[in-house]
Amino acid sequence: MQKKIFAVSFLCTAFLFSCTNNKPAIIPVPPDEYFIKEKFIIDIESITETKDTDNVYNAAGSLPLWLITFINGGIEEVEKLDEYYGNFAYIGINEGANFNAIKMWADNFSAIRDFPMLSADRIQKRMISSASLYPDDEYGAFFELMVKNAYNNVYPEAFIKDTYWIKLKTGNDTTETPSHIYNYFILILIDRTAMQNAVLKMADAAYSSVTPTAAQRTSITRLRQNFFTGF
Q1: Can you give the pLDDT at residue 34?
Q2: How far apart are CA 60 and CA 29, in angstroms?
Q3: pLDDT digit string (tens) for 3-26?
Q4: Structural domain boundaries enclosing 156
């Protein structure tokens, strides 16, 4: 039987989770890692268990609509679902072989504390994608300060909408004890208007603190006018 493979682009970067002697440690991903265009490959036939079922023959069929949509189309398609109309959606992702450890990460995930990293990642990517030159040249000190403000900002409107995990067999049929890996997904929503206002407020604060060149002022103005196109 031909295997069905789903590829997922990591549009929303989560935290990497490491365990030493079964003691969990939450480690922020270094910012440079955010821009690696990784592919997250899910072999649907290797799903042996999910949050909703341990029936290997029906595990893949138990996935919620938002997760199936994310797997097939990315975060933009999730935001198009009627249920999430008027919101921006973000998905934190973590994986590991120790279910207790990865669940602890999910249980301790806080929209107030951890969402700014996901938000800053998206803001930074938007600024990079809109720059015709290197963003440091295109926007000058505004770029660095805007990203810094994004990491330090607080978003009281952000909230966790749902969580879901899947268990994948990573060993083969000849292995006596097949190894497994768990993938945990956290869906976070924030009101679209509230997010837009927060970004524009950060942009105002960053702009008032720098002295851009004439060319940089033009680029920053253009960015502000079109920031949420393709955001």
Answers
A1: 34
A2: 29
A3: 444 434 333 433 333 333 333 333
A4: 5-226
What is the percent of the chain where pLDDT is above 70?
A: 77
**Is residue 231 assigned to a domain?**
no
Q: What tokens does 193 get? A: 């208007």
163 burial type by CB count under 10 A (0-12 exposed, 13-18 middle, 19+ buried): middle
- Write out the E strands in the chain: 5-9, 16-20, 23-27, 39-43, 47-50, 87-96, 159-169, 180-191
Domain count within the chain: 1
The chain-wide mean pLDDT, for the chain, equals: 80
In a domain, 191, yes or no: yes
Phi, psi of 208 (to 5 degrees): -75, -10
Buried b vs exposed e over 34-51: b needs ≥16 C-beta within 10 Å?
A: beeeeeeebebbbbbbbb
Confirm whether 13 is domain-assigned: yes
Contacts of 20 (CB under 8 A, 6+ apart): none
Q: Is residue 41 part of a domain?
A: yes
